[in-house]
Amino acid sequence: MTYPVILTIVLMPVVLLGLATVLTWVERRLLGLWQDRHGPDRVGPGGMLQAVADGTKILFKQDWVPPFADRGVFVAAPAIGMMAVLLSFAVIPVTAHAGIAGDMNVGLLFILGMMGVGVYAVVLAGWSSNSKYALLGGMRAAAQMISYEVFMGLSLLGVVMMTGSFSLRDIVAAQAGLWFIVPQCLGFGVFMLAGIAETHRLPFDLPEGENELGAGFHTEYSGMKFGMFFIAEYAGIVLVSCLVTTLYLGGWRGPWLPAGVWFALKTCGVVVFFILLRASLPRPRYDQLMALGWKVLLPLSLFNVMATGTILMLRASL
Amino acid sequence: MLDTLRTLFLTALHAFHRRATVRYPEQKPYLPPRYRGRIILSRDPDGAERCVACSLCAVACPVDCISLQKTEADGRWYPEYFRINFSRCIFCGLCEEACPTYAIQLTPDFEMGEYARSSLVYEKEDLLISGTGKYPDYSFYAVAGIPVPGKARGMAERERPPVDLHSLLP
Amino acid sequence: MHALALLAAGITVMGAIMVITRRVAVHAVLYLVVTLLALSVVLVMLGASFAAMLEVIIYAGAIMVLFIFVIMMLNLGQPDSQREKEWLRPRAWLGPGVLAAIVCMELLYCASPLSGPARLPVPITAHDVGLSLFGRYVLMVELVSFLLLAGLVTAFHIGRHREGGH
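Above: the input entities. Below: the structure tokens describing the complete assembly.
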């Protein structure tokens, strides 16, 4: 453990939590822009301090545990969600040298595993709330996230096959000539959709579904426990955007500008695209979501794996 | 798929459209004169109260937020008190339609937030304005056939002088 | 490194004991998840990071979530925790407990000759796993795939919509 790595470990959560908090404001301003509104623009220059105001408010709200809830699990659920997302960032290579464990030889699998653990936050929140809307949200979340984890893993296999490594830094290094978005365009599409479903973001926010389930799995949550779900969701968006950047958009690679700036720019672009999706698309029905997953995305990702494998074999034999 | 991409593109184009909303406290939106906002009681062109306490507005009110009591002075009817509970009022405008004297009118003012619910109960002195509202020339007693001080029977507009019944005798 | 592995192993054992003794089914499953996560730490210490990650993804991330999903669907309540309480009498767990203790001691006795100075394990990569799966153990892989196919067909048969009522 060298000194810069320890410093990164200390700094990364701080930066990430700040980023996720600011992202709540960015999202609302962008949604306003695309819906011909102004959005929050009162607190500070252009409303930039809105996130601070919201955070202060939510910190001072009553933190209430319903008497019918399973107390221990109820308290643990938001912590699990936050922890899983923050741990995933450990293996993201920001540049060729920055980052905590970008060289981890199973980095990609680690992220998939942490996403799998992150499912517990939603499911346990739904179960421990002991209320029907929360339970329905939790069940939806369990089915949706387990299903889309499958397609996410399969869509990543193409990238892994072309690189020959699970290490995220190796994957970026392998994109020196051509970004993987070109040869892996199918995998890219499947990964984007699975990423949205995995972070249960709009338009795939069925576990929350506020017009039919109240607020879904976090119906009974208040105060900072709700805030943790909220921040974890936005940190999840940043995580998926970082992954898309790393896996398909060449990571820190780019001309003229320093590597870290390129990484940040690409990630911001993907985040903005996610917000654009939220601004424009309606939420599908639950069976439509499942049908899309198992009947479209699964065959597509399997085809992608087969095609990539075949081409790689042919190229190796030539 | 293509539809979805087209939707995304069109939504992104909205970034360059004009904002439909206004920045409210600094920039007030235009409200037409017939906007149904805060209720007022208007006066005649000569400054007397128009309301004749007929209670038609209270009857018409679907949420029963108007209450008033009639009193008389010099042959004219007045409300002794006139009370509107704005915490109940739904600003439907039925009272304005029911009013035979154009006394009760709705105005394009809606900024009447209060911290205490009881502050939303408006009494007659809160409701009365000094002007005529939307009907500047109308005066109920000038067209009505009721004698009031300064206007004897038969002196109203388009009213013939009263017929002396004794002159009809053969 | 050694202490870390011992700590993880201890958490594994503790978690396993908690799994058996919990009365609320979801709590038991949660302890099982803790056990599996600690087990994956042990695997990483042994150099099998690929297997450890698969353990987290498949067991902790998918199968346990399905367990919880089923428990949520069944919605076990108060009577069940009462029944669990009855099952946890010494009369019920004493026999299996003694047998398990004997097996544990045998295991410790067998493993004691293996203990020696701690050495860094050789990392097992995905490459090695793939080679052994499709080289030495290809027959096992094929048999397992038969089993999975049978399971898949059964699930399809049970879940199929029947025309004209049940």
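Note for the figure: Chain C has a mean pLDDT of 83.
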